[in-house]
Design goal:
Layout: H1 2-9, H2 14-43, H3 48-66, H4 70-85, H5 88-111, H6 113-123, H7 128-141, H8 145-160, H9 164-188, H10 193-214, H11 216-219, H12 227-230, H13 233-266, H14 269-306, H15 309-345, H16 349-357, H17 359-381, H18 385-410, H19 412-431, H20 434-440
């Protein structure tokens, strides 16, 4: 109770936003770095097919895993509201619930992997060589699904507790191990694409164990194993409804990104590889802005738990100020250094040339996408998952319509333009619902 009282008394300031956000930005920076290393390591093989295989395999698995992204976002919203309300027993019970869901969800994906992979490659236009390599990669990585999905919940819980330093340490260990094993397995042992997969498998299980170590204080208290509390009907139903809507929203996001790479495959292996290289810039953007979105999620959730409208508004404004500054810096950095970074990630001159021709779109992405990330963060903290689901559906439909209209005439330019516009549509449609959120969330 003393900790919750201190949380309620602490003002929402620039310093507090940065204390939450900066460790997340730093920890997230290791994730796209991992993607860059994956791409760069297989890029040293001197062919487009291995780059495309890792890209296709990773995006398919990431899409499946991100169907469970609700576990992190829902946990942040629910746990931060419980923390703001001073309900320690519910905070601990939420951790138990998300661990059970994560491990069960990962086990389910392992069981149904064959039909899922068959469906994914039926939709994918990748060449036979790319598909064969991607299947080898996915057959290994799927076995760490329970660890990675459960880790979504652990990470969300730690963020809601404002323990983002622990999240940073966990990510540094997991991704640092992954990078080291990547280099050893692929370059040192010449395992190729399967070496990338084995490195990720080992690192993801190690990451879950390390994350649980940071939660050891919860396991020393009785609430996490209180069956009556953990399985209480009302909070379980609320969690299920919120998670259902966030899962549908995550599915729609993945429709956009998966179809983007599939459409890229229609344009040839070189364009697919070039777009995979460029997508690393988009991932850098998302992980950098996520840090500030998570800060807003936590502080908005606590404000709602405290029923304090002024704190809610202040958290939203301060978070957006810092996110916009970071977005502008990223856009400038991509424009200035993008060609050099592309040259590091790919040795193929064809891939370099095609990627450079479309660099302008990744330079525009941060300043266009920042608004959707931040408004998402506000709605996650408020657990307004239905609004997020509905507006994401609108954004996905508009993206697919634009792709159908622009791709035949403008090729890869049309594909990238549709993606950038989808970020803006998501921000506008969700932003229109913010006044209602502020009016009703703390009533």
């Amino acid at each position: 109770m003393a900790e919750s009282a201190a949380t309620q008394a602490a003002p929402v300031t620039h310093a507090r936003v940065l204390r939450i956000a900066v460790p997340i930005v730093l920890s997230n920076s290791t994730v796209p770095l991992l993607g860059v290393v994956d791409t760069a390591v297989v890029g040293q093989m001197g062919a487009a097919a291995p780059i495309g295989a890792v890209g296709i395999g990773a995006i398919i698995l990431s899409s499946l895993y991100w169907l469970f992204a609700f576990l992190r976002m829902g946990t942040i919203g629910l746990a931060s509201q419980a923390k703001g309300a001073g309900d320690t027993a519910e905070e601990h019970a939420i951790l138990s619930r998300c661990l059970m869901i994560g491990l069960a969800g990962g086990a389910l994906l392992i069981v149904v992997q064959l039909p899922l992979f068959a469906a994914a490659f039926w939709m994918s236009p990748a060449s036979a060589e790319v598909e064969s390599l991607a299947r080898d990669y996915m057959a290994i990585r799927i076995w760490s699904a329970p660890a990675l999905i459960a880790l979504y919940g652990v990470t969300g819980w730690l963020i809601a507790e404002e323990r983002t330093g622990a999240v940073l340490a966990q990510q540094l260990v997991m991704n640092g191990l992954n990078i080291a094993l990547n280099i050893w397995f692929v370059i040192g042992l010449n395992w190729g694409v399967t070496g990338v997969a084995w490195a990720t498998f080992i690192a993801e299980w190690a990451g879950l164990l390390f994350g649980l170590w940071f939660c050891r204080g919860v396991f020393a208290a009785p609430h996490w194993r209180d069956k009556v509390k953990v399985f209480a009907r009302a909070p379980l139903m609320r969690m299920a409804l919120i998670n259902r809507d966030i899962m549908l929203r995550s599915f729609l996001i993945q429709v956009i990104f998966v179809s983007f790479l599939f459409f890229s495959g229609d344009l040839g292996d070189v364009t697919l590889a070039a777009n995979q290289v460029l997508m690393q810039f988009v991932f850098v953007t998302s992980y950098a802005l996520d840090g500030f979105a998570h800060a807003v999620e936590t502080l908005v959730g606590q404000a709602i738990g405290q029923k304090d409208r002024a704190r809610l508004r202040q958290a939203a404004i301060l978070g957006c100020i810092w996110a916009v500054l970071v977005a502008v810096a990223l856009s400038i950095a991509f424009a200035v250094t993008g060609v050099s970074i592309i040259a590091i990630m790919a040795t193929s001159e064809e891939v370099r040339a095609v990627a450079g021709a479309y660099l302008v779109y990744v330079a525009l992405t941060p300043v266009c996408a920042v608004w959707s990330f931040m408004i998402d963060g506000i709605f996650v903290g408020a657990t307004r998952a239905r609004d997020m689901r509905d507006t994401m559906a609108i954004s996905a439909v508009i993206y697919l319509i634009l792709t159908g209209l622009l791709l035949p005439s403008f090729g890869n330019h049309g594909l990238w333009l549709a993606l950038v516009i989808s970020f803006l549509v998501r921000a506008v449609t969700l932003g229109m619902r913010y006044p209602d959120l502020e009016k009703t969330a703390v009533s």
